[in-house]
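Deliverable D2.4 — example input (structure tokens):
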């Protein structure tokens, strides 16, 4: 089976990057920008919220080890998909909850996963579903941020608790024991 790629955002890409790097079946995670109206934006432009881009991750995965459904479910339960343009203290359209699909099958799967997890939230899920158009890789300092900066305040205050929640939710071994 051929490896596949999916792109989605759920707030700051540092958080989502850290979670998916620990996921069995995930082969590569890249932080970047997608969904905007200018080509090749940088962090300086995207952080203003005026480019239309969301901070996203692009996940390359082995569908023999993890399904798209499972990746999308992890995505939806490890951030708050019920808030518009906000995750915690991070506010702006660049932090919106979004899934970029490459074909109608991926769109249908995403719609089903959203519907299945919606019952677990008191508010409606507002995650956007949009066709994938382009992904612009973020600057080097934004790649693998948590592993490179574990003692940084944001990592300790925001990412570490999200990872702890994910590890508790995750059933089974961590990535290192399988990949």
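Example output (designed residues):
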């Amino acid at each position: 089976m051929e490896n596949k790629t999916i792109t989605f955002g759920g707030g700051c890409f540092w958080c989502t990057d850290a979670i998916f790097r620990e996921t069995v079946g995930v082969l590569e995670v890249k932080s970047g920008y997608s969904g905007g109206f200018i080509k090749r934006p940088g962090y300086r432009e995207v952080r203003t919220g005026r480019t239309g881009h969301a901070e996203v991750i692009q996940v390359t995965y082995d569908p023999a080890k993890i399904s798209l459904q499972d990746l999308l479910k992890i995505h939806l339960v490890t951030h708050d998909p019920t808030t518009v343009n906000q995750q915690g203290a991070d506010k702006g359209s660049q932090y919106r909850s979004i899934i970029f699909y490459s074909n109608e099958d991926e769109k249908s799967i995403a719609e089903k996963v959203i519907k299945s997890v919606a019952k677990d939230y008191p508010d409606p899920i507002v995650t956007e579903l949009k066709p994938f158009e382009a992904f612009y890789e973020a600057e080097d300092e934004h790649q693998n941020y948590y592993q490179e900066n574990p003692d940084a305040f944001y990592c300790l205050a925001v990412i570490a608790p999200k990872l702890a929640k994910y590890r508790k939710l995750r059933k089974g071994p961590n990535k290192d024991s399988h990949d």
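Helices lie at 13-21, 43-46, 68-77, 104-118, 145-148, 153-169.
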